[in-house]
Amino acid sequence: MKKLLLLPFLLSLTLSAAELGSKLPGITLDGDKGGRVAGGKWESSELQGKVHLVFYVDPDESDLNEVLSDAVKASEPDRSKFASVAIINMAATWKPNFAIQSVLEGKQEKFPHTTYVKDMDKYIVKSWNIADDNNDIILLDKTGKILFIQEGEVDADGIKKVLKLIKENM
Question: pLDDT (tens digit, 9 = 90+) per residue, 25-44?
Answer without folding.
Answer: 999 999 999 999 999 999 99
